[in-house]
Amino acid sequence: MASLLLSFVLLLLLTVSSAESKTFWADVAALKEFKNSVDPKSISPGSCLSSWDFSVDPCDGLSGETFTCGFRCDSVVSGSGRVTELILDQAGYSGSLSSVSFNFPYLQAFDLSGNYLSGPLPDSLSNLTRLTRLFLAGNSFSGSIPDSLGSMPVLEELLLDNNRLDGSVPASFNGLTSLKRLEIQLNNISGKFPDLSSLKNLYYLDASDNRISGPVPSSLPESVVQISMRNNLMEGTIPESFRKLNSVEVVDLSNNKLSGSIPSFIFTHQTLQQLTLSFNGFTSLDSPYYSPLGLPSELISVDLSNNQIQGPLPLFLGLLPKLSALSLEKNSFSGMIPTQYVWKTVSPGSGYAGFQRLLLGGNYLFGVVPGPLMTLKPGSRNVQLEGNCFSWCPATFFFCRGQEQRSLTECRKFSRVIP
Ligand SMILES: *[C@@H]1O[C@H](CO)[C@@H](O)[C@H](O)[C@H]1NC(C)=O
Ligand SMILES: *[C@@H]1O[C@H](CO)[C@@H](O)[C@H](O)[C@H]1NC(C)=O
Fold first, then answer.
1. How many other CB atoms are there within 10 angstroms of residue 233's CB atom?
2. How many helices (H) and strands (E) does the chain have?
3. How far apart are the C-alpha atoms of 374 and 364, rounded to whole Å?
4. Looking at domain 255-419, which of 3.80.10.10, 1.10.1040.10, 3.40.50.720, 3.40.50.300 is its CATH number?
5. DSSP 8-state code for residue 125
6. pTM (2 decimals)?
7. Is ligand 2 within 6 A of the CB of residue 233?
8. Ligand positioned closest to the Cα atom of 127
9. pLDDT-based confidence at 417, cuts 50/70/90?
10. Are the beta carbons of 86 and 102 closer than 8 angstroms?
11. Where is the Leucine-rich repeat-containing N-terminal plant-type domain (predicted)?
């Protein structure tokens, strides 16, 4: 009986205090801590963050003169529960002893992008438990990404790109089960990329321009549509598990330390449209099996330039029905230009995309430049053949770009086959 009475008193107190603060108290505490953790020197006068003086209730003041920027609150979240479960919270409860209803706005979106703010990211950001969007891109936040950020249950978009964050991507991120968009590019993030297989809604991942090492992640969720991890330090090749990514349309792994062979399945992938693997150390590529009728492939653009791939130009790349941009320059391809490439550039069959861009410069291709290519009008296609071992690529043809072929000595040194 005594404890019931005590509860009642507490409840009355809470109801009274709720008149002052409408915003969920833990959200207010997290905002205060966030402001405290930012280097005061980086908060410019008149900026959003400088206007936070906490004299007005955050969510209540949204339409007023002060405290209006940097976040959005959701409409009031209501619910009910038993008093014994809720009695310890200080938020705005009201109701009878047996059942209470609560009523307060939470922070729903938090956006302080592009403000040159510096300092660490505080752990308590994760106390904003109803946040669906956290945008802190384009600042100078430093230190590592707090593990606690991985425990935000309804977070859908996390944008931390273009800061000075280091350390690794927390393994706890696999707990962000509502996450759809993750952008951490342009930081100094290192270490192996974690397992994110539980992120069943993730469709956009950009971790470019960091120092991420280890293998290309093999445990991305099947929902992922775009994977950008260029300019990192990843090794190995494209993992077999990419086969199962049945929504992926864009893969950019350029400028890493990938090596070995590019697996054949990636060229006949059921959804992939854009494959960028330039500036790596690949030495070969595996041809998929194909019939004379062509290949099932959704690829529109393939960039394998600036690797060390040897061998003849792969015939199958001239048979991919939708491919219109192929960059193979600065590798060690040799042999002649296949007729499949020539026809795909000059007059693709009906229902087939033609090459609008065919970049083959800086290889060891030899023979004569096929006649049909010579009939192309300058500017009609972007064809580049300079820096090979063609016997004749007159500077007057636009695709020779007025540049020399390699010297005969250089060409012979590479291959004895070259006449
Ligand atoms: C965030 O939540 C944790 C755990 O509930 C708590 O210890 C901490 O004081 C909270 N931080 C703020 C700023 O409210
Ligand atoms: C990035 O991190 C590496 C260590 O991992 C460090 O040597 C380097 O100075 C950092 N770069 C920047 C721009 O902070």
1. 13
2. 6, 28
3. 20
4. 3.80.10.10
5. G
6. 0.86
7. no
8. 1
9. low
10. yes
11. 27-59
